[in-house]
Design goal:
Layout: E1 2-15, E2 19-26, E3 30-36, H1 46-49, E4 55-61, E5 68-78, H2 87-103, H3 111-126, H4 131-145, E6 156-157, E7 160-161, H5 171-180, H6 188-193, H7 199-216, H8 224-233
Parallel strand pairs: 3-5
Antiparallel strand pairs: 1-2, 1-4, 2-3, 4-5, 6-7
Helix pairs in contact: 2-3, 2-4, 2-8, 3-4, 4-7, 5-7
Length: 234
């Protein structure tokens, strides 16, 4: 059947001389793989659509038991053009994309997580400050929505002890705020501005969240985008 759904492009691979396979996180159908004929050609308009982090509306031929779906039509839902020219914005966006790709499974819809990812990418594109806080917010929201919400008093897991969330001057307060925050609230940006983040807080909060991700998802170990992000911010 032909279906239509919002989608975020997670990654793409060449397929033959002219086509690509795009992994997309769709709102209604979860993570799917789509064959896009002609998108490997630079002059083909489809090439510009299927780039990581793009927010699209896609129409495709959906077969539930098929690993590879076939595209019919596509259009932009948001044109996040600033990602092309601002490395910091793009790197944060691709970090959120990679973490999402590494943690969700095929054909498993997560509509609320999809909305959170769209809002997070929109924040990175539109705003100019507090990217680290918004990124931590998304990581924690992803953990929570996938069933692994961190409990700050509990640090000992079988085979692992999490970093101490209280080790920074404000790290516990920052984590508590982010666990309760809502990016869809009108006060989200102003609430981020109230958080005092020292260099030690940045290390502690980042390490605590990443340790949670790595414990629950082995696929989150050695994330390439986070290495690039650390180099960019150092």
């Amino acid at each position: 059947m032909i279906v239509e759904t919002p989608a975020i492009v997670l990654k793409r691979f060449p397929y033959s001389d002219s086509s690509v396979i795009a992994h997309c996180f769709t709102r209604e159908y979860g993570k799917i793989s789509i064959m896009v004929r002609g998108a490997q050609r630079k002059r083909d308009p489809l090439s510009s659509y299927f780039q990581p982090a793009n927010h699209l509306e896609i129409l495709f031929y959906y077969k539930e038991n098929r690993d590879l779906q076939t595209l019919s039509k596509v259009s932009f839902m948001d044109n996040w053009i600033l990602f092309q020219d601002e490395l910091k914005k793009l790197t944060y966006a691709l970090s959120a994309i990679e973490i999402t790709d590494k943690t969700i499974t095929d054909h498993d819809p997560h509509e609320i997580l999809f909305d959170e990812l769209v809002a997070t990418l929109s924040y990175f594109h539109t705003e100019e400050k507090y990217f680290n806080l918004c990124f931590w917010y998304y990581e924690l929201k992803l953990l929570s929505l996938l069933g692994f919400q961190p409990s700050l008093p509990e640090r000992e897991f079988p085979g692992m002890v999490l970093p101490n969330p209280n080790a920074g001057p404000n790290s516990r307060q920052i984590l508590e705020f982010l666990l309760q925050a809502n990016i869809h609230d009108s006060t989200f940006k102003s609430d981020l501005a109230l958080q005092e983040v020292t260099a030690k807080d940045r290390r502690i909060v980042g390490s605590y969240i990443l340790s949670n991700l790595e414990y629950h998802f082995e696929t989150c170990r050695n994330l390439k985008s986070l290495k690039v992000l650390k180099q960019l911010l150092s």
